[in-house]
C-alpha cells in the first residue's frame, strides 16, 4: 500500500539542498583521489552546477548543518571596501582569513603563536597588522580597484586610476540591462603570485530577464565541505543587493564549480552530514535601501525561519 506524503515531507524531498548532498555523496563515493596543494589530499570531480530560486526572499542556507551567515556577510561587505588586511575582519571576530597570514608569520618568525593570540595582536597593534596581516591584492582589491596602466613615455608605464567593477555592473544594470557584460572578475593573472590565495570564486556574471536579476558564479576550486556554504550565500546576497540597487527583483542564483572536492580529513563531516535530511526555508529581509552598493551594514540584513541542524566542525586546509 502506498503511503501518502505530508506536505512537509513533499517539500523536503524537493528541497534545493538535495543538489548539494547528492553532489557531496557523488564526490565522496566516486571522486578521483588526489594529492593537492595543501598536502591533505582530496576526492575531486570536475564540473558541477547547483541552482536556487531567490523568489519570495528565499536564501540558500544549508539546513543540514548551521551556516554562520553573518560571518559570510561580514566577509562580503569587507570585500566591497577593497581592503586586503585582516585587521578589520579580526576586529569583528571573523577569522576565516587568519590562517594564511598566521602560517606565514609562524614560518618566517619561528614564533609558535596561537591563532587567538595572533588575531588579538593584529587588532591591537597596527604596525604588526601592516607587516603581517595583509593578504595581497585579493578579491576586494580586484573588485573595486582593478589596476590600470598608461604609457608614460620611453616604453614605461605609470599606474592609472583603478576600475570599480561593482560600480560598473550597477551602472550597466540600470542603463543597459540586456548587456552580456555584467561581469565581476577576480582572476588578475598579473597579480596572482602576490595574493595569499588566488581567487577561488573568480567570475560573477549577471543577467536580466524581464524584471528579474539572476547571477552566476564560476568557482575554479571549491571546498564543498566548508567553503561552498559561504560561497553560495554570498552569491545570493550579492544578487539581492545588486537587484535592490538596480530596481530589479531577485531571480536565480546559479553556482558552477570547476574542481569540486572534499578533503580526506573531512570524513566525519561528510559522513554525518549525509545522514541528515534538509528541512525548512530561510528568508532574508533587507531593512533599508542604502545610497549605494558600498553603504550596506551588517545591521541591514535579517534572516527569518532558519532552523538548521547542529554545526559540524572540520579543519581548514591552508
Which structural class fits the helix and strand makeup? alpha+beta
- Termini distance? 53 Å
CATH architectural name of the domain at 13-68 and 162-304: 2-Layer Sandwich
CATH C-level name of the domain at 13-68 and 162-304: Alpha Beta
Question: Level of helix content?
Answer: 25-40%
Please give the oligomerization state of what you see: single chain
Task: State the gist of this model.
The chain is an alpha+beta fold.
Word description of this protein:
The chain has 318 residues and is of the alpha+beta class. It has a domain at 13-68 and 162-304: Thymidylate synthase/dCMP hydroxymethylase domain (Thymidylate Synthase, Chain A, 2-Layer Sandwich), CATH 3.30.572.10. It is built from 11 helices and 11 strands. The chain has helices spanning 7-13, 17-30, 69-79, 87-91, 99-109, 115-124, 126-132, 139-145, 165-175, 227-246, 267-273, and strands at residues 32-34, 42-53, 58-59, 146-153, 156-163, 183-185, 201-209, 212-223, 249-263, 282-286, 301-304. The chain has a 6-stranded mixed sheet with strand order 1-2-9-8-7-6. A 3-stranded antiparallel sheet has the order 3-10-11. Helix 3 crosses helix 10. It is globular. The relative contact order is 0.19. Residues 1-7 have low confidence and may be disordered.
Amino acid at each position: 500500500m502506498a503511503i501518502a506524503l505530508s506536505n512537509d515531507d513533499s517539500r523536503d524531498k524537493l528541497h534545493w539542498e538535495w543538489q548539494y548532498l547528492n553532489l557531496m555523496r557523488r564526490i565522496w563515493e566516486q571522486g578521483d583521489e588526489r594529492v593537492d596543494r595543501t598536502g591533505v589530499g582530496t576526492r575531486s570531480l570536475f564540473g558541477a552546477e547547483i541552482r536556487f530560486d531567490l523568489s519570495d526572499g528565499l536564501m540558500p542556507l544549508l539546513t543540514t548543518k548551521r551556516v554562520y551567515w553573518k560571518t559570510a556577510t561580514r566577509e562580503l561587505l569587507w570585500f566591497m571596501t577593497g581592503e586586503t588586511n585582516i585587521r578589520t575582519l579580526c576586529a569583528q571576530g571573523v577569522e576565516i582569513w587568519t590562517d594564511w597570514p598566521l602560517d606565514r608569520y609562524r614560518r618566517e618568525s619561528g614564533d609558535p603563536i596561537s591563532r587567538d593570540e595572533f588575531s588579538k595582536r593584529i587588532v591591537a597593534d597596527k604596525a604588526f597588522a601592516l607587516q603581517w596581516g595583509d593578504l595581497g591584492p585579493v578579491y576586494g582589491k580586484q573588485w573595486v580597484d582593478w589596476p590600470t596602466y598608461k604609457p608614460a613615455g620611453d616604453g614605461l608605464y605609470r599606474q592609472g586610476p583603478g576600475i570599480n567593477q561593482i560600480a560598473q555592473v550597477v551602472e550597466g544594470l540600470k542603463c543597459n540591462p540586456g548587456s552580456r557584460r555584467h561581469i565581476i572578475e577576480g582572476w588578475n593573472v598579473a597579480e596572482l603570485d602576490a595574493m595569499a590565495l588566488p581567487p577561488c570564486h573568480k567570475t560573477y556574471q549577471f543577467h536580466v530577464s524581464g524584471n528579474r536579476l539572476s547571477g552566476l558564479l564560476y568557482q575554479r576550486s571549491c571546498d564543498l565541505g566548508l567553503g561552498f556554504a559561504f560561497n553560495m550565500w554570498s552569491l545570493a546576497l550579492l544578487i539581492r543587493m545588486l537587484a535592490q540597487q538596480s530596481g530589479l527583483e531577485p531571480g536565480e542564483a546559479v553556482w558552477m564549480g570547476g574542481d569540486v572536492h572534499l578533503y580526506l580529513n573531512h570524513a566525519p563531516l561528510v559522513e554525518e552530514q549525509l545522514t541528515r535530511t534538509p528541512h525548512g526555508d530561510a528568508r532574508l529581509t533587507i531593512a533599508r535601501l542604502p545610497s549605494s552598493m558600498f553603504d550596506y551594514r551588517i545591521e541591514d540584513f535579517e534572516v527569518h525561519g532558519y532552523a538548521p541542524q547542529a554545526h559540524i566542525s572540520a579543519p581548514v586546509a591552508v
